Amino acid sequence: MFDYIIIGAGSAGCVLANRLSEDPAVKVLLLEAGPRDWHPFIHMPAGVAKLVNQKGVNWDYNTAAEPNLNQRALWWPRGKVLGGSSSINAMCYIRGVSGDYEDWAAQGATGWHWDNVLPYFKKSEGNVRGTDAFHGSDGPLSVSDLRYTNPLSQAFIDASLQIGLAHNRDFNGAVQDGVGFYQVTQREGARCSAALAYLDPARQRPNLTVHTGAVVSRVTFDGLRASGVTYAMRGQAFHQPAAREVIVSGGAINSPQLLMLSGIGPADDLRRHGIPVIADRADVGGNLQDHLDICTLFHSTERVTYDRISDIKTAFDYYLRGRRGPGTSNVAEAGGFARSQLAPDDRADIQFHFVPAMLDDHGRNRLPGDGYTLHACFLRPRSRGRLSLVSNRAGDKPRIEANYLGDAEGFDLKMMVECAKLSREILAQKAFDRYRGAPIFPARNDLDDAGLAEFVRAKAESVYHPVGTCRMGSDADAVVDPQLRVNGVEGLRVIDASVMPCLIGGNTNAPTIMIAERAADLIKAA
Ligand SMILES: Cc1cc2nc3c(=O)[nH]c(=O)nc-3n(C[C@H](O)[C@H](O)[C@H](O)COP(=O)(O)OP(=O)(O)OC[C@H]3O[C@@H](n4cnc5c(N)ncnc54)[C@H](O)[C@@H]3O)c2cc1C
Question: Do the Cβ atoms of 352 and 335 come closer than 8 Å?
Answer without folding.
Answer: yes
